[in-house]
Amino acid sequence: MAGTTLEISIRTPEREILVDITSRVEAAIGQAHATFTGVATVFVPHTTAGVTINEGADPTVVRDIVDHLRRLVPRESGFRHGEGNSDAHIKASLMGSSVAVPVEGGRLRLGTWQSIYLAEFDGPRDRRVWIVPITAGSEDQRASGGRP
Amino acid sequence: MAGTTLEISIRTPEREILVDITSRVEAAIGQAHATFTGVATVFVPHTTAGVTINEGADPTVVRDIVDHLRRLVPRESGFRHGEGNSDAHIKASLMGSSVAVPVEGGRLRLGTWQSIYLAEFDGPRDRRVWIVPITAGSEDQRASGGRP
Amino acid sequence: MAGTTLEISIRTPEREILVDITSRVEAAIGQAHATFTGVATVFVPHTTAGVTINEGADPTVVRDIVDHLRRLVPRESGFRHGEGNSDAHIKASLMGSSVAVPVEGGRLRLGTWQSIYLAEFDGPRDRRVWIVPITAGSEDQRASGGRP
Hints:
Helix content of chain A: 25-40%
Number of helices of chain A: 4
Low-confidence stretches of chain A: 141-148
Strand content of chain A: 25-35%
Order of helices and strands of chain A: EEHEEHHEEEEH
Largest sheet of chain A: 5 strands, antiparallel
Oligomer: homotrimer
Largest interface: B-C, 45 and 46 residues
Structural class of chain A: alpha+beta
Radius of gyration of chain A: 18 Å
């Protein structure tokens, strides 16, 4: 992996659970890129897990999210895919495979109530999360590219 | 906030509504970064509102989106969270907390019918939107990093 | 379009289908930006199609995704929008209009089972996909900006 990209590993404890990874993401960025300001792309390289940002203060919120997604996409819905985890694939696409997180001076700049969650839908498993830092900038790409 | 990051404020008029913020986002970028070419990360620092891109021409489209999300995630569904707004948290994660918008020369480069919407699910409220500009570029990060 | 942004065209063969565009995206990046390392923003400039990352090995997975989205958002649900494709607009927002894909040395860095899908919900149509490369970097934007 390129020197700037970071990886963290998470053991998810249940089949369906949102695991708060905010402090893990912040620690990884703070250690490797303490002065970085821009956007961190937090990317999940799996197809039965996703990533989302939601409330971190009251743990019942993410349990409500998991429960309601289970109602919207029940495990047994006459799916074609033989592995019995099509529901997990569908929920992963509903949540998405990445979030963009503003960073300032090596610290996450989230809203007051926001946390970053690995959204596990087919655990328990060992999951990885990649973090790619992208420096903020508003350069005129065309102008600078045109200079000799 | 870092000098490159912009913030706009929006007062949402209803509990559930998609508010078109395209011109606000474009004006903020055009004023601060008139020659910027790249991607704007449009980020919502809230947990009961999200952001999405959809049709801007016919206003019935976004009303259909709001109505159908209400059917998929009714406000009363036996949720655990005591504040009575778990539906809003779930819809926020379904829409997502950020969108990436191509920008060229300080102007948004959206598809013909696309607009950017703040997706309010627990208003009316005062909401903020952060815009982080990221310059386009295809530099070989490893090569440049490897030079002394 | 700026020199760094790429465009690919896709003819979708059905009303609702997930079309694997991974090799098209990789070929476009590899040809134009063979040494690029960072994140590719893959953006769909349409409002009745989106883009998502999911399993590429077993084609039944994406058929299950399409089928289940049709159950969640049936075409006839008493919508206001007169064109009869509100379901497609809603599904597009559920999937999202862009994905962020890590790239290293001009090659996509996806998880083992991940593919990128154009999510068509109102085809068959000619669709475009824009790819904006963003170089990875963890520079201190504020420090560099502060230097004369």
